[in-house]
Design brief:
single chain; alpha/beta; Rossmann fold; 7-stranded parallel beta sheet; about 50% helix
Length: about 200
């Protein structure tokens, strides 16, 4: 990983469920993501709770010595708790939490989750499509969890409601280490494109 890429990849946002789900492989994937982010020398940014897949990912990253930044509304602490010994920011609303999660992350890894995760996912890819940001997004497709989501996105493209460019932002990855590598590859590609644009302008 180049020094420039390292400078651009400081924090990785993890969107995932506040429950464990029905398969043990989901928890295994969350643990692998937390470990991979910490070993890549990046900060893990997440929803702040100490429950479900998000709690596993964050606690694993912290145990590996990686920095962790949690963002949680105050009213959720009684329900979801929060990790001790990590950086926690308490906000007032869910909207504020989501906005900060997106803003504080240089890239995103999406794990299995429910409606809250889906809301975050659609917000992120919509921002990409509108040109409001350009950050790598990868979906950890544990046991094919995100395959139906990809089918839905492709269906909206086929039916003329979604441009293909938005579907191009939905990339399904099988394991955590590959997800990190793909993020780095995307950042390197952006760096090359930005450099070419700058040279053209000169």
């Amino acid at each position: 990983m180049s020094d420039v890429t390292m400078a651009k990849l400081r924090s990785i946002g993890v969107f995932c469920g506040s429950r464990l789900g029905e398969r043990e492989t989901y928890a295994d994937a969350a643990e692998a993501v937390g470990r991979a982010i910490a070993r890549a020398g990046c900060r893990l940014v997440y929803g702040g709770g100490d429950v479900g897949l998000m709690g596993i990912a964050a606690s694993t990253a912290a145990a590996e010595g990686g920095p962790v930044h949690g963002i949680i509304p105050g009213f959720l602490i009684a329900r979801e708790g929060h990790l001790e010994g990590v950086d926690i920011k308490i906000v007032e609303t869910m909207s504020e939490r989501k906005s900060l999660l997106i803003a504080e992350s240089d890239a995103y890894i999406i794990l299995p989750g429910g409606t809250g995760t889906l809301e975050e996912v659609f917000d992120v890819i919509s921002r990409q499509q509108l040109g409001l940001q350009d950050k790598p997004i990868v979906f950890l497709n544990t046991d094919g969890f995100w395959s139906p989501f990809m089918d839905l996105i492709c269906h909206t493209v086929t039916e003329g409601f979604t441009p293909q460019s938005l579907a191009d932002h939905v990339e399904l990855i099988d394991d955590a280490d590959t997800a990190i590598s793909r993020i780095v590859t995307q950042l390197d590609a952006q760096q090359t494109t930005d450099a070419g644009t700058a040279n053209t302008a000169d």
